[in-house]
């Protein structure tokens, strides 16, 4: 039974006591209308003194219940805020403050380096206000922080109205992304491990071995919000192994994070930025084509000792193949605004299928998961003489080991839950393998 219901029940019991006084059992009721005269005056005084505190108790208990249940609740919508004022007014709920918003510590605990996005914060506040206004308890179920119950109906109606009223597609994307992320963070509290994104009982963090990435290389995980906190996501392995400074998460549609990523790209220059993605509208470019000795002489910034201050930035589009289309289109549009030209520099990889194909079906074997794409890049770079001394083989091995750990953790969980761990092989041919999004 929820705390608000308990409060209402207590209120009803109080009324019932007054009504039952009219019955035959008057002596049992402390607030009866016809007790003895001496008791009458005493009880009137006591009831006059007690009633204010009782009123306060009934008023505070709903807010107490609201704050405690929000730990497992969420859903986005950008309207008003002002939950913090109501939470601070209740001395009976000391745990309301950390529950009322997503703190910086919690936010960055999920593998993110940026501050908490303003729109995500606003959506969380609006969810709290809506929960209090509707007296409907937020609850989550399933994967992805999905709202359930009566609150879902109320919030769904409200967020659709807000989305429809937004002026342009960019605003709608930002609202959609912030809403997805707010739900997933609130719905995963106390359920998922913040580092490995697996349920706490299946946490694999103790088995992950960290390893340093070559200092002049940086991965950018440009992730779709629907892949954020997804248990079988493999992009998270890169910052688990290399750290968040070497493998940085950027959530699609979150302006603050996209600005950080593009500031780094502008600083590095177009010749030091690539995307591991199969761009069908451009000529296929391999690692050898870009970094081989024969091609380096033709590059604007050849990778020699003269450019040791340059960082090589590799973008991994992380999401389903359908969602990747929108993400890559955004990359191309932004690159055109900054550097001109029609295409974003892309690299295709020629490697084998990922071990994760056993659990995560791919449209074809010429596509692979995010971690396997990073492994392929590091392995191919190691084969080039000019890069062979940077330890890329060891770095690739570290990610591959982490991928095996994830596969084993997911397999164990599926078996425990009675779910299938096999997939139908749809393609047996060897294809040119490109980065999975």
Could you describe the 3D structure shown?
With 437 residues, the chain is an alpha/beta fold. Helix content is 48%, strand content 6%. The strands form 2 sheets. The chain has a 4-stranded parallel beta sheet with strand order 4-3-6-5, with helices on both faces. The chain has a two-stranded antiparallel sheet with strand order 1-2. The longest helix is centred in the N-terminal third of the chain and has 33 residues.
Order of helices and strands: HHHHHHEEHHEHEHEHHEHHH
The chain-level structural class is alpha/beta
Q: What form results from the Cα inertia axes?
A: globular
N-to-C terminal Cα separation, in Å? Answer: 43 Å
Q: Number of helical segments?
A: 15
The counted number of beta strands is 6
Oligomer: single chain
Report the mean per-residue pLDDT as an integer: 75
Strand content: 5-15%
| Major sheet summary line | 4 strands, parallel
> Could you give the order of strands across the largest sheet?
4-3-6-5
Low-pLDDT windows of residues: 1-98, 296-302, 425-437
Helix content: 40-55%
Radius of gyration: 28 Å
Structural descriptors:
437 residues, four-stranded parallel β-sheet, two-stranded antiparallel ribbon, disordered N terminus
């Amino acid at each position: 039974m929820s705390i608000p219901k308990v409060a209402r029940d207590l209120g009803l019991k109080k009324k019932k006591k007054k009504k039952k006084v009219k019955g035959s059992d008057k002596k049992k009721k402390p607030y009866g209308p016809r007790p003895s005269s001496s008791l009458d005056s005493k009880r009137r005084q006591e009831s006059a003194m007690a009633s204010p505190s009782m009123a306060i108790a009934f008023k505070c208990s709903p807010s107490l219940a609201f704050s405690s249940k929000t730990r497992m609740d969420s859903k986005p919508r950008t309207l008003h805020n002002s939950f913090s004022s109501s939470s601070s007014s209740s001395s009976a709920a000391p745990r309301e403050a950390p529950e009322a918003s997503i703190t910086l510590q919690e936010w960055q605990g999920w593998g993110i380096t940026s501050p908490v996005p303003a729109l995500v914060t606003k959506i969380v506040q609006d969810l709290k206000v809506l929960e209090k206004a509707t007296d409907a308890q937020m609850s989550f179920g399933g994967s992805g922080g999905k709202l359930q119950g009566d609150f879902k109906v109320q919030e769904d109606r409200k967020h659709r109205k807000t989305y429809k009223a937004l002026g342009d597609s960019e605003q709608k994307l930002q609202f959609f992304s912030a809403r997805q992320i707010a739900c997933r963070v609130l719905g995963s509290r106390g359920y998922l491990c913040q580092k490995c994104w697996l349920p706490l009982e299946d946490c694999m963090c103790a088995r992950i071995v960290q390893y340093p990435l070559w200092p002049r290389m940086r991965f950018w995980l440009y992730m779709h919000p629907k892949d954020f906190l997804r248990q079988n996501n493999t992009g998270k392995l890169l910052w688990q192994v290399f750290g968040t400074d070497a493998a940085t998460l950027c959530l699609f549609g979150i302006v603050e994070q996209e600005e950080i990523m593009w500031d780094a790209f502008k600083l590095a220059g177009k010749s030091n930025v690539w995307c591991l993605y199969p761009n069908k509208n451009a000529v296929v470019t391999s690692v050898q084509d870009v970094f081989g000795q024969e091609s380096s002489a033709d590059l604007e910034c050849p990778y020699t000792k003269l450019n040791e201050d340059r960082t090589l930035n590799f973008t991994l589009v992380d999401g389903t193949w359908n969602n990747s289309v929108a993400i890559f289109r955004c990359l191309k549009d932004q690159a055109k605004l900054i550097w001109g030209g029609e295409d974003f520099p892309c690299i295709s990889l020629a490697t084998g299928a990922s071990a994760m194909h056993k659990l995560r079906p791919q449209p074809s074997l010429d596509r692979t998961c995010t971690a396997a794409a990073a492994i392929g890049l590091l392995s191919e770079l190691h084969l080039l003489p000019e890069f062979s001394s940077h330890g890329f083989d060891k770095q690739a091995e570290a990610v591959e080991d982490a991928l095996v750990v994830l596969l084993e953790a997911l397999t164990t969980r599926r078996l425990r839950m009675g779910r299938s761990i096999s997939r139908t092989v749809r393609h047996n041919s060897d294809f040119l393998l490109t980065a999975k999004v």
